[in-house]
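Key result, reporting period 2: structure in, sequence out.
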């Protein structure tokens, strides 16, 4: 009895051939050297930073080569699918500026001519190729039960034999066709397995990140169609990347060991094989050793962490580009006015041993980027973040629109702009003194080391009498403060003070420190003159009074 009959019994509703789909999805017309890449997540959970990292690599490679980047949803494991995960993927990528030329756009819709881009909707395609493999005797139905497979595995381990379903241990590999049909007609459950070539040779392959690699050829009769009729990852990936004309598959290095299976599938299906780039795992230091960034242990593995903390999107992306290529930092120093989109990502310069994630380094990168933003950019991004994370601050920031913008503008146009914030969650503690709603609730007052509370009150009581709010510049205000300090016995010259400290009550810094503390309750703030202008004359005098009478 022929394989043709077996194929027709197993896939009786499949009336198309592989050639039909190969012709349906012709190669795109693209410039020479253009890469077609993809991000292909499984919707079994919400996005993590490793997913953004992988998508960023694929997107940049496609964009820099004038190619195509598409989103495919690999949802063949229906039992593990998490509701909302597809939309989370799409919204996360949009938020981080990782846009797709083609692919899934919602749970049910897609754009592009190579769809559906959701594997659960491509069942007919996979079954057509599986049917053709059975017809050629390259695949077969396997009736082994889970219990039998577990028993085989345990025995192989006991006997120190490589575990798996292959060669002489593949019980149904060479089952006569008539017996296979008899079992199917009897109603026994089955799956479809690839009939491996069992080649003793090694495979030599060039990975675009790892370089030259070598593996034993695949000898496992891997499952290609599951009992529910849907394909396994191995089978679906090969068919999809061939029909969607993916030229470069970039994916996590955990799939590197599966490469021999995929190469054999491309060969048996007679489909063109793409290039591969296996991306290193994101690692972190745990004590003195490295370990994989963990969804369970590390809050920073979740994309929501960066939103909750208030890292600007560009800061996260630029930090990830540091992980992609270590020369990014140098490039950024030399190209301060360019977009990160101009950076020439190079796969062969990626780390082969794992990218080390460092939250402190992320903070440094983020501070640098925020320091280069205009006051309007900082204000608008903070306002947007506060709207969803701190509504009270959002409303106060709206009410103090002009003042807060001027605060964010302090030292912006200097050779060394301030680097006060790495993330928006850090803004509130550093600006609360601008708002009476928080300032009056503060009970702790910082004082300069050389000034007591009583001394500070004495300074403010006198300064209040001569305070002028209408100074036109910081320099004019400070000169007035120096004159005032001298009039009450404080020295403005360090050398003079050191020569005869007993002659003075203290230094000008003590007077400025007392003013700062009275207005902010802090000993360190940005430009005090600007803060006074933001507060306004009435509030400055009111705070002087409240401080004196505290």
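The corresponding designed sequence is given below.
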């Amino acid at each position: 009895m022929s394989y043709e009959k077996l194929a027709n019994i197993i896939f009786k509703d499949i009336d198309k051939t592989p050639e039909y789909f190969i012709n349906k999805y012709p190669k795109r017309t693209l410039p020479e050297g253009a890469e077609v890449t993809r991000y292909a997540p499984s919707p079994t959970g919400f996005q993590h930073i490793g997913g953004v990292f992988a998508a960023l690599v694929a997107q940049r490679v496609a964009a820099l080569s004038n190619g195509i980047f598409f989103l495919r949803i690999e949802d063949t494991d229906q039992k593990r699918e998490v509701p909302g995960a597809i939309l989370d993927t799409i919204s996360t990528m949009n938020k981080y500026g990782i846009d797709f030329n083609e692919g899934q756009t919602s749970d049910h819709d897609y754009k592009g001519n190579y769809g559906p881009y959701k594997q659960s909707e491509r069942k007919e395609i996979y079954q057509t190729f599986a049917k053709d493999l059975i017809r050629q005797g390259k695949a077969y139905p396997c009736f082994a039960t889970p219990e039998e497979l577990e028993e085989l595995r345990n025995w192989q381990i006991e006997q120190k034999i490589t575990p798996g379903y292959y060669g002489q241990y593949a019980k149904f590999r060479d089952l006569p066709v008539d017996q296979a049909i008899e079992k199917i007609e009897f109603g026994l459950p089955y799956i479809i397995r690839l009939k491996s070539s069992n080649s003793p040779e090694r495979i030599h392959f060039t990975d675009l990140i790892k370089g030259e690699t070598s593996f034993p050829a695949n000898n496992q009769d891997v499952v290609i169609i599951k009992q529910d009729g849907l394909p396994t990852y191995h089978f679906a990936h090969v068919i999809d990347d061939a029909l969607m004309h993916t030229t470069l598959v970039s994916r996590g290095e955990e799939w590197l060991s599966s490469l021999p299976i995929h190469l054999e599938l491309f060969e048996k299906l007679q489909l063109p094989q793409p290039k591969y780039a296996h991306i290193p795992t994101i690692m972190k230091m745990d004590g003195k050793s490295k370990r994989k960034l963990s969804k369970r242990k590390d809050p920073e593995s979740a994309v929501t962490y960066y939103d909750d903390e208030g890292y600007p999107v560009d800061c996260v992306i630029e930090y990830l580009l540091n992980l992609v290529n270590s020369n990014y930092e140098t490039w950024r120093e030399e190209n301060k006015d360019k977009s990160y989109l101009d950076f020439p990502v190079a796969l062969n310069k990626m780390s082969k041993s794992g990218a080390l994630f460092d939250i402190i380094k992320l903070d440094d990168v983020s501070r640098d980027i925020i320091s280069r933003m205009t006051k309007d950019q900082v204000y608008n991004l903070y306002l947007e973040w506060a709207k969803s994370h701190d509504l009270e601050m959002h409303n106060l920031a709206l009410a103090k629109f002009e003042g807060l913008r001027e605060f964010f503008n302090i030292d912006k146009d200097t050779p060394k702009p301030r680097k006060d914030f790495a993330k928006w969650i850090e803004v509130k503690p550093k600006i609360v003194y601008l708002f009476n709603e928080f300032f009056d609730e503060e009970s702790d007052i910082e004082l300069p080391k050389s000034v007591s509370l009583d001394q500070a009150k004495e300074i403010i009581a006198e300064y209040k009498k001569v305070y002028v709010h209408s100074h036109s510049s910081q320099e004019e205000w400070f000169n007035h403060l120096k004159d005032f300090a001298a009039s009450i016995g404080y020295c403005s010259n360090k050398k003079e003070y050191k020569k005869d400290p007993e002659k003075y009550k203290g230094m000008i810094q003590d007077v400025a420190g007392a003013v700062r503390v009275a207005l902010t309750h802090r000993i360190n703030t940005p430009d005090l003159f600007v803060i006074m202008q933001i507060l306004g004359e009435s509030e400055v005098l009111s705070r002087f009074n409240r401080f004196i009478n505290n």
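The longest strand covers residues 202-207. The radius of gyration is 33 Å. This case is discussed further under Risks and Mitigation.
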